[in-house]
């Protein structure tokens, strides 16, 4: 929600207006942009239903109405609702159906817009006063309490991170300040439909015994609720523990079964591996024997090859010797043939021919 506006001559400066302009409503109002959408329509519709059901007002003034969503939802339900807000941007975005019932104005200003009533059954102020400076808070509280005898009030008690939150206070401090103005918290009405810290305040002069009785009634009721919630929490915790233990036991059984299956599978694979190892070892032994035989055969072949090389060398040596002898004999033959073909040899042969014949005993013998 935005800060309540100042009316007429007390309107905020341009700087203040820009603070609660488009950027503020799109980025500084929570996780979702503050604009007409399903989320905010559903939220303010539920709030309007609760106001009608629990508080039954005929007329309502919403201080810090922003874009008039609550005013719109209340009027849909037959409640004459009006709204004021500091932001001209927000008021410019009020739906046309309720535009005449919303205006730029301020809770810190004593005078409402001229067309507005001066009194209401209920004033609502939702997440607004934390935006005001100290100088405006008291005037705003006085004005909130003078326009109606009942106030539905909510102001964040812990959101210090929002840059426009200038007066974040706990609910008890707001209750004390409103009590000083004659507005006392109605302890019999639960306003948590708005926010967890929301409260309804009524104007009356409390009689001490009645006030004590109301606080005691609330104290006893809250104590009873707290004890019931604690008992329920303990019961749920016990149920959760039993359920968790049962679930853990079931998971453990499943895990054990799975481990047993894995162990059996591992044993089977180990047996298969052992058999494969034995077969591999037998194959290895056979391969080693074959390799030994092959090595022996290779050694034998190598020896035979070496012997063949030696025999080949010896044969080559003998062939060389024979070739040398043949070459020598050829030389002698060639020399002989050359000698026999020479004239000298022929003359000598003719001269020696009778002598050879004589030696053979042919000369001097009569022919037969």
Reported CATH architecture of one domain: 3-Layer(aba) Sandwich
Helix content: 55-70%
Alpha-carbon Rg, integer: 63 Å
Q: What is the name of the CATH class of one domain?
A: Alpha Beta
What is the arithmetic mean of pLDDT? Answer: 85
- Taking the alpha carbons of the first and last residues, their distance comes to 178 Å
| N to C succession of SSEs | HHHEHEHEEHEHEEHH
| Inertia-based shape | rod-shaped
Low-confidence stretches: 1-12
Strand order of the largest sheet: 3-2-1-4-5-7-6
User: How many DSSP-defined strands?
Assistant: 7
CATH topology grouping of one domain: Rossmann fold
Give the DSSP E fraction (strand runs of 2 or more residues).
Answer: 5-15%
Largest sheet: 7 strands, mixed
* CATH homologous superfamily classification of one domain: Vaccinia Virus protein VP39
The helix tally amounts to 9
The helix-and-strand class reads alpha/beta
